[in-house]
Amino acid sequence: MELSEQNVKKQRPVHLDLQTISFPATAIASILHRISGVIMLFAIGILLWLLNSTLTSADGFASVQSLFDGFVMKFIIWGILTALGYHLLGGIRHLIMDAGHWEELASGVSSAKATFVLAVVFSIIAGIWVW
């Protein structure tokens, strides 16, 4: 019994270098979906702060409106919209997969790549709209 345990221990990698591992499109789609969800969590705080500032007074509304003239706020809003777009597309993809479609490897990879393309298109459209 000890001999088989030693063989198992020898086969396990000692150090995983994540930069050398090639992730499939489905894994990248899943990781990005989680990251976009975390971004949306922080975005809720930013958007609530902006909403609160605009509702407190006319001066607060004017100050928030002046923030949108700057590059930084436009970039933040574009980032929020991009994260929201990807998260929605990824969520729809997951819902379709939960319904029993696109569960095979080939269709999963295709749907992940389609999600990437649609997210880039949405991001470009959001950028044009913000700027």
UniProtKB/TrEMBL annotation:
Heme binds at residue 87. Keywords: Cell inner membrane, Cell membrane, Electron transport, Heme, Iron, Membrane, Metal-binding, Oxidoreductase, Transmembrane, Transmembrane helix, Transport, Tricarboxylic acid cycle. Pathway: Carbohydrate metabolism; tricarboxylic acid cycle. The chain crosses the membrane at residues 21-51, 71-89, 110-130. It is a multi-pass membrane protein. Its cofactor is heme. InterPro entries: SQR/QFR_C/D, Succ_DH_cyt_bsu_CS, Succ_DH_cytb556, SuccDH_FuR_B_TM-su. It is found in: Cell inner membrane. It comes from the Bacteria. The heme is bound between the two transmembrane subunits. GO terms for biological process: tricarboxylic acid cycle. GO terms for cellular component: plasma membrane. GO terms for molecular function: electron transfer activity; metal ion binding; oxidoreductase activity. Belongs to the cytochrome b560 family. Membrane-anchoring subunit of succinate dehydrogenase (SDH). PANTHER family: SUCCINATE DEHYDROGENASE CYTOCHROME B560 SUBUNIT, SUCCINATE DEHYDROGENASE CYTOCHROME B560 SUBUNIT, MITOCHONDRIAL. Part of an enzyme complex containing four subunits: a flavoprotein, an iron-sulfur protein, plus two membrane-anchoring proteins, SdhC and SdhD. The complex can form homotrimers. This is Succinate dehydrogenase cytochrome b556 subunit. It comes from Shewanella frigidimarina (strain NCIMB 400).
